[in-house]
Specification:
It is built from 5 helices and 5 strands. The chain has helices spanning 5-26, 32-45, 91-104, 119-122, 129-132, and strands spanning 50-60, 63-75, 79-84, 108-113, 124-127.
């Protein structure tokens, strides 16, 4: 199967749907780890390949730093999902996800905040240049 922008966007749509389901059941106000556990369960039950708390190595000049960062969720080895349970999404959170995407060399990421009234209103999708270089369909 060829990876296309459409495939990635369709996958992102499924991921967001699972986050909405978790939020519909739990609502806002819990800690991030509770949402992560339930979100992982939803993704797996949807038949998606899911990994969580994935270490990301940082290459700095000739050094490899291999203990500094962890991706919250990686779906189908393509989309990075950064989960939050915060009052407000900050520019720092977006920068964090973009850095994770570049370091992990993944084409798309989703920043999902569960501490809100509506998941889709605070959803932040980000793409890298790698995404732009993929075929549309």
């Amino acid at each position: 199967m060829e990876i296309t922008q459409k495939y990635i966007n369709d996958l992102a749509y499924k991921i967001v749907g699972r986050a909405i389901e978790v939020h519909k059941i739990l609502g806002p106000g819990l800690i991030e780890s509770v949402y992560e556990h339930c979100f992982l369960s939803e993704l797996k039950s949807a038949g998606l390949e899911v990994k969580s708390q994935i270490p990301v190595n940082i290459k700095y000049k000739d050094d490899i730093i291999n203990f500094a960062l962890r991706l919250d969720v990686l779906v189908n080895d393509i989309i990075v999902v950064e989960l939050k349970a915060v009052e407000t999404i900050l520019p720092l959170h977006k920068a964090q996800l973009l850095s994770y995407l570049k370091l992990a060399m993944k084409p798309k990421g989703l920043l999902i905040n569960f501490n809100c009234e509506n998941i889709t209103n605070q959803l932040v999708p980000l793409v890298t240049e790698e995404f732009s270089n993929l075929p549309l369909e």
